[in-house]
Write a structure and sequence with these properties.
The complex is a heterodimer of chains A (282) and B (313).
Chain A lengths: L1 H36 L4 H7 L13 H7 L5 H32 L5 H13 L2 H14 L6 H5 L6 H12 L4 H8 L4 H12 L1 H17 L2 H6 L8 H6 L2 E2 L2 E2 L1 H21 L1 H9 L6
Chain B lengths: L2 H17 L10 H27 L2 E4 L2 E4 L3 H5 L3 H21 L1 H11 L6 H9 L6 H11 L7 H8 L11 H29 L3 H9 L4 H12 L1 H16 L3 H6 L13 H11 L3 H25 L8
Antiparallel strand pairs in B: 1-2
Classes of the chains: A mainly alpha (282), B mainly alpha (313).
Chain lengths: 282, 313
């Protein structure tokens, strides 16, 4: 009797394991093939298509050395992506946490209205305001500058929402103690509440940095000259109606994933908290 | 307490009050400077663009001159290309929802069960595609779904005994490529949402159901599904928005939005083509509002269907 029950569970486990293995392979397969292809010359790809064939004779680092040579702009794009992601993430977190905190901690007449406005910006897709925003960026001379990519989105609704939730759950006793000690309201936020919100900062930092690193549509519209592009936009310019530069595209795509993958492996917990922040609320 | 002690206390209190009377100490003013950046950003980068989009959608915007043309832009939307774009976006949204709600939900239930091993490994592995940008994902998929005999998908279908296909050249196959790409990138994300939802279901419910002799199927259909309703509605809603505003995927698969016979053209693709490439900002703005209207109506309909507006008992 006991043994049959035991085997039954083991069988279920095996089936589950098989099912998840299929999905895991499906998830990793494209990335693995892309990595393999990045070591082959592009003519090979053009002739035989993207495949898993590993032929040591064809393997070389040529595609990668080209990226790092002076002939390609890839390193410039990489640098632009790092700069934009760093500035955007820092500003967005600082400003959004301030706003979320203000909404959570103080009762004031405009509170509900402001929060409703936050929710409205969350619900209207960017695509609708894209054209006027583009016109506005031209008048504000933000076109082709990193500020054009960054500024319109630093007061981001999702982080505001998340920080509001988080700050609302923090104990308020500290606040009055700090006030008695003569701390300014802003000082309370910077010196006491920000450190208390550290976990929320980690989750949102990762989420916003990922969003910014991979962001496509808006930077595609704002950035113009080749030297200003970020990695995704730069890579997309390699595909043209007159021919595609797959040598650079594939190795460039592989290198674009590497930093995110490293961060993900080390900070998975924060990724998961940040991702589910929008969905699970009381 | 002696009188003098009381006096000193009162003194320090008065001093503190004096020190704290400035605007920086006022709890009445504080919230306004905290939310001020949002109000500025909202006014400049949201409210103004929305109003100006409404305005532009009634205009013919030509370089140097702007003319009001009433509803003409909206009337112009009634054309075969735009209808095709709406149809493509709608199909894409439906197919992605049909796959990306049940599959991750069931996987989440399995992954949540006590008997599953290597939970974290699978959760992380399935999430990895979500880390890639659409540009990277699009690059892989356009190559894997290439028309060459040796490309991944063709070797796969030929191994199954079918003919090689032109995946990106035929309407139905192009749509499947887009849907497979979406499934690849989103299963891990929706899985996380459903797992977070499962964590909120009290274990006692299952325990008491087991005492009452409920089968696994009963527990799934009577406890898990109903209690996952809020998260399912959330996933449904973001899928509608995501589906209808899809653009980059199609931009990457067909060299910047140029699919044969517009088989991959989406609503936003149409907006991009007319508004930015052909600089017809008026028509582009009208497309934007058509998109807003479609997503809004469908979302409200969906929320009504799920009984979101019913009062919770």
């Amino acid at each position: 009797m006991d043994t049959t029950v035991k085997t039954k569970w083991t069988l279920n486990q095996v089936l589950l394991l098989a099912l998840f293995t299929v999905f895991a392979v499906f998830s990793l397969f494209p990335i693995v093939t892309l990595t393999i292809a990045s070591f082959k010359p592009a003519q090979e790809l053009m002739r035989f298509g993207l495949n898993l064939k590993i032929d040591p004779d064809l393997f070389s680092l040529k595609n990668y050395t080209y990226l790092f040579s002076g002939e390609s702009l890839y390193l410039t794009w990489y640098k632009n992506s790092i700069v934009i992601t760093a500035i955007y993430t820092a500003l967005c977190l600082f400003i959004s946490s301030m706003i979320g905190y203000g909404l959570a901690v103080y009762k004031f007449p405009l509170r509900n209205l402001t929060f409703t406005l936050v929710l409205i910006t969350m619900m209207v897709p960017l695509e609708i305001i894209m054209l006027p925003l583009y016109k506005l960026s031209i008048s504000l001379q933000l076109i082709d500058s990193i500020w054009g990519v960054i500024l319109p989105f630093i007061a981001a609704p999702l982080p505001i929402f998340f920080f509001r939730q988080y700050a609302g759950g923090l104990p308020k006793d500290f606040l009055d103690a700090a006030r008695v000690d003569g701390c300014t309201e802003f000082g309370i936020f910077v010196r006491i509440m920000m450190p208390l919100m550290a976990p929320a900062f980690s989750s949102m930092a990762i989420l916003q940095a990922l969003f910014c690193w991979n962001n496509f549509l808006w930077p595609l519209i704002v950035l113009r000259t080749n030297e200003q592009l970020t990695i995704p936009i730069g890579l997309s310019t390699l595909l043209t109606p007159y021919g595609n530069n797959f040598d650079m595209l594939i190795s460039g795509a592989v290198l674009a994933i590497v930093p995110i993958l490293i961060v993900f492996l080390f900070f998975q917990k924060y990724f998961i908290e940040g991702m589910t922040a929008g969905g699970v609320k009381g | 307490m002696t009188d003098s002690a009381l006096e000193t206390a009162a003194n320090t209190e008065a001093k503190r009050k004096a020190k704290r009377s400035g605007i920086l100490y006022s709890q009445k003013f504080a919230p306004y400077y905290f939310v001020f950046p949002f109000l500025v950003s909202f006014a400049v980068f949201f409210a103004y663009p929305v109003l100006s989009a409404i305005n532009m959608s009634f205009q013919e915007v030509l370089p140097g001159q702007v003319k009001y043309i009433g509803l003409d832009n909206y009337k112009d939307l009634w054309n075969a290309t735009f209808l095709k774009a709406i149809l493509n976006s709608t199909k894409y949204t439906i197919y992605t929802i049909v796959i990306l709600i049940p599959v991750p939900l069931v996987l989440a239930v399995f992954l949540h069960s006590k008997r599953m091993i290597a939970k974290n490994f699978f959760r992380s592995t399935l999430f990895i595609p979500a880390l890639t940008s659409v540009v990277v994902a699009g690059t892989v998929f356009r190559l894997a779904f290439g028309e060459l005999e040796g490309s991944l998908m063709n070797s796969f279908v030929m191994w199954l005994g079918f003919e090689k296909q032109r995946w990106l050249g035929n309407g139905a196959l192009a749509m499947s490529t887009l849907v497979i790409l979406a499934a690849w990138r989103w299963i891990g994300i929706n899985l996380l949402y459903f797992m977070a939802g499962l964590q909120n279901i009290p274990k006692e419910l299952y325990e008491s159901a087991e005492i009452d002799g409920a089968s696994t199927w009963n527990k799934f259909s009577r406890i898990t599904i109903p209690l996952l309703r809020p998260i399912t509605i959330y996933v449904f809603t973001i899928s509608i928005y995501g589906g209808y505003s899809m653009f980059t995927e199609s931009y990457m698969l067909w060299n910047g939005n140029r699919s044969p016979n517009d088989i991959g053209l989406t609503i936003v693709g149409y907006l991009y083509r007319n508004g930015l490439e052909q600089n017809n900002l008026g028509l582009g703005s009208a497309v934007g509002f058509a998109l807003l209207l479609i997503t809004f109506v469908i979302t409200i309909g969906q929320l009504k269907l799920f009984g979101m507006f019913r009062k919770e008992e």
